[in-house]
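Entry type: protein chain
Record version: 2
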Amino acid sequence: MYNPFVLLSENILSAMLRQPMYFVREYYTRGTENNPKLIPFLLTHYSQHGVDNERAKRHFDLVKKDPYRRLYDTTHDDDVKKLFIASKQPVGYKIYLNILPDPWAAPNHLRNQVYKYMVATFPEWEKDRNKKLSIHIQDLFGKLYLLFTWQGNRVEVILDEIEKY
C-alpha cells in the first residue's frame, strides 16, 4: 500500500503549535510497513477556527468504531505533552501526519494502476491516449483520494479503489 504522509516530528509539531489545533488520531493501515508488531497512527490536523472546528468533530465522529481514536486539543497542556511524546516516534509505533509532499507526483507503480483503472472505467479515455491526464492527491478525513482531470472531465476516486487494479 502506498503511503505518502510524513512522519510526525518534534520540529513539525512545534511549528504547527503556533496556533491552537485539533488533532484527530486514528489507526492508519497504510502505515504498517508490513510489520504486524507495529501500531501505525494517523494524526489529522485542524485549526481551531470556524469551519475547521466542525470538520474535526465530524472526522472524530466518522472514526467512532476505531478503538485508537482520540481527539487532541492543543489548548490543553496534557494533550500537548502526549503529542510531543508521539512526535518522538516511540518504539512499536509509527505516527504519521496528514501532510502531503508538495509538489506531489504519482510513483510509477501507482501510475500503472491509474492507467488500468482509467481503461477499465472510462473506455473512451483509452481511445485517445493523447488526452493529458492530470493526477492530484488529496486527503479528506484521513482518507486518500486521487483527483483525475482530462479535457474538461474531473473524477475523484478513493486511493483504495485504484490499488485494486
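Comment: DSSP finds six helices and eight strands in the chain.
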